Write the structure tokens for this entry.
Amino acid sequence: MADQVAIVTGASRGIGFAIAQRFVAQGAKVAITGRDADALQAAVKELGGPDVALGVAGKGDDAGHRAEVIDAVNTKFGPVTTLINNIGINPAYGPLAKLDLNAARKMAEVNLIGTLGWVQEALRGGLAEAGGSVVNISSVSGVRPAPGIAFYGTTKAALIHLTEELAVELAPKIRVNAVAPAVVKTRFAAALFEGREEQVTATYPLKRLGAPEDVAGTVAFLCSPDASWITGQTIVIDGGVTLTGVVE
């Protein structure tokens, strides 16, 4: 990946940070985003410092922040070749019948519309000319019902369809794919397994929850020449749980 300039959103920790680590290890230059400037700077240092990584703090649904990131990347590393849309929020749990509609709007704005905004900015920042790839981080809750996080899953299902539409529109230069993880052991997903990890894990045929590195490896593959004939696809990374268990 020595010729790649990647943006990974929501990457100060968890899945996004693991993806950024994998990219840097394979020779890419990486820009990471997140809301916490201090956490981002610590992540940049851990990634290897300013020669290989750049951190820009802001909110993913803020158009000004997205433009700032693209401009900073172009100035420091050159045209964008790779975009990983990892940012996502789930501020509400419970049944749809009682869902706060303002929370639903915020999820749609960040998880879906924000993702499209990142793609549009990346195209402005060089992706349209250089070609390359986009990977959207969806969820198994976007491929089958997930009680308790149903609207989050709805936004992730829409993200899968957006992936397919973009794959058609941006071909042949740009490939667009998605990954759909089940529960990965991160702070973001803690409410889905903390205090009952053994019970949750028992529903997985592979008998463990995911690790951020599991997702990072698949994303790196999708951005590599080995995946040069793959576009518009969603790879489920779930330890087999969608075959036998209840998605949460």
